[in-house]
Write a structure and sequence with these properties.
single chain, RNA-binding, alpha/beta
RNA sequence: GCCCCCUUCGUCUAGCCCGGUCCAGGACACCUCGUUUUCACUGAGGUAACUGGGGUUCGAAUCCCCAAGGGGGCGCCA
């Protein structure tokens, strides 16, 4: 069955069925896919800048589609513009893709039977393909460059936008059956350049040639390419080759202000989230939600589940604004769902790097602290300040919290003095400590909670944090009492 | 200027294809109250949207037309 898109024309079923997966017991799974339906998608970045969040999302949708259908995900580097490319820029892309957990089946460092996967190494192919078009009369030389010859009646007109005389061609519209937009028709009206006069091929040409040569079946790319697609379809037509299926996905817009996210916008670069200790799974999860909604309506979900549910037909048609607060929320949720051992593995190096702990802190001790902290902390970035007081007496004191204490509870020092004797006599378990607070409250005709905030501030310098009784238990009797005494002194 | 795409709470969206179940549901943010205590956890509640105008229809967020707004493209950049 065709997955049914909402409110979109569906000219023909553009989505190949998911390959049949049949298990045959211990001899191993056997995947039967229909011969014609092996999906081949590609992400084709140009290493001319940084790894932009929009590029990451495009890569992700391609990757998800490949994984969902059991197809191949190909990474192809479009480095035809020598002026603007560099090794370092390429590395940024590869690193960010690895960080986000996207692996490729063919491409740099893994190879593949349709390589090389760098366009700068495929120039002979492009020359040969150009000759092919020239031989067919569909490409011609002018001003030292090679142009695609459109088919249709020609006329010379003055173009207001370009402010010059141009030759227009009355070519038939190219009709695209886009998987997310339905039928889109657009006519090219001018011949366009295939090869520059400096001998280098242009994007439109190499993109199509490589998609043909690499047997790409589906092109999933940003909507900013939608208008270019008529050029690409003209080139496919000139070669006499059936074009792949296209899916033009919506763009990611700036959080506020006009236009799409650009390299210079805050939060536009994947490496920023890496530096800020975001969980890659959370960033990836959020990116999936920009332009697509899982059928079950859940927002925080594991990648296996996203792969299972991902459908191109469910991709949105309208652009979405980037909202870091929502991503931050997903990050916090994801952090909370992490198994304790994984949380510790992530936390330890950060805590060592920030000198919150040193290497001598045992796994057991760290696990104890992290155990009460994980459910409350909202990001790994904030972890050091959140739990630093467990490992040093020289912790930072939050002045705002102190001011708030005085405003709400009166005299915090007096409260600690009232609390101290009972606490010293108490057994150091959570129920016993809770009982101690209750007893002090009753004795002084106060609510037990009047003592919580002063106690927390005295031992941590903070106004909030992990569950207080847990903090007392983990911090230990001696340290806790010493800090309370110091505070009351 | 020409061409293409889009239009539901401040934001991300569900619903739209197959009109009534929607005085439009969820999430983020915000506000209120609660909670073993400021902010970040958690619980309960709240504010908040079908861009506008015409049709079609007993009935339209849902179908049609127009307009407006937003986005993108129009390079010997990718």
């Amino acid at each position: 069955m065709c997955p049914s898109p909402q409110g979109k024309p569906l000219p023909s079923c553009p989505i190949p069925p998911t390959p049949l997966r049949l298990s045959f017991g211990p001899s191993g799974p056997l995947i039967l896919s229909l011969p014609m339906s092996q999906v081949r998608v590609r992400f084709a970045p140009s290493p001319t800048g940084f790894f932009h969040i929009g590029s990451a999302r495009t890569a992700l949708f391609n990757w998800l589609y490949a994984r969902h259908t059991g197809g191949k995900f190909i990474l192809r580097i479009e480095d035809t513009d020598k002026e603007r490319n560099s090794e370092a820029f390429l590395q940024v892309i590869l690193d960010s893709m690895h960080w986000l957990g996207m692996d490729w089946d063919e491409g740099p460092s893994v190879g593949g039977e349709y390589g090389p996967y760098f366009q700068s190494q495929r120039t002979e192919l492009y020359q040969a393909k150009l000759k092919e078009l020239a031989a067919k009369g569909r490409a011609y030389e002018k001003d030292g460059a090679w142009w695609l010859r459109l088919e249709g009646a020609r006329s010379t007109v003055f173009d207001d936008h370009l402010k010059k005389e141009i030759e227009k061609v009355d070519a038939a519209p190219m009709v695209l059956h886009d998987m997310v937009r339905g039928q889109v028709a657009r006519a090219e009206d001018r011949d366009f350049v295939l090869f520059r006069s400096n001998g280098e091929p242009v994007f439109h040409f190499v993109n199509v040639v490589d998609d043909i040569e690499m047997k790409i079946t589906h092109v999933i790319r940003g909507e900013d390419h939608l208008s270019n697609t008529s050029k690409h379809l003209e080139i496919f037509k000139a070669f006499g080759v059936e074009p792949p299926k296209y899916a033009h996905i919506p763009l990611i817009l700036k959080t506020d202000g006009p236009g799409k996210m650009s390299k210079r916008d805050k939060g536009a670069l994947i490496e920023e989230y890496q530096q800020r200790r975001y969980l890659p799974a959370a960033v990836r999860n959020y990116l999936c939600l920009l332009g697509w909604t899982p059928a079950d309506g859940k927002e925080v979900l594991p990648i296996d589940e996203i792969i299972r549910q991902f459908e191109i037909s469910a991709v949105h048609q309208s652009n979405a604004r980037f909202d870091e607060r929502k991503m931050s929320h997903i990050n916090a949720q994801t952090l909370r769902l992490l198994p304790a051992a994984d949380f510790a593995t992530l936390a330890r190096p950060i805590l060592i790097e920030t000198k919150t702990i040193d290497a001598s802190v045992s796994e057991t001790r760290l696990a104890e602290v992290l155990g009460i902290v994980q459910e409350k902390v909202i990001s790994l970035e904030h972890l050091p300040e959140f739990m630093g007081f467990f490992f040093t007496a020289d912790f930072k004191k939050d002045e705002g919290a102190m001011a708030n204490l005085k405003k709400k509870g009166g005299d915090p020092v007096a409260r600690i003095r009232e609390l101290l004797p009972t606490l010293e006599a108490a057994e150091w378990t959570e129920p016993a400590l809770e009982a101690a607070f209750a007893a002090v409250g009753t004795a002084n005709e106060r609510k037990p909670t009047d003592y919580f905030a002063p106690a927390r501030f005295a031992i941590s310098g903070q106004g909030g944090g992990a569950h207080l009784l847990g903090v007392l238990r983990v911090l230990g009797r001696d340290t806790t009492l010493a800090r309370l005494k110091a505070f009351a002194a």
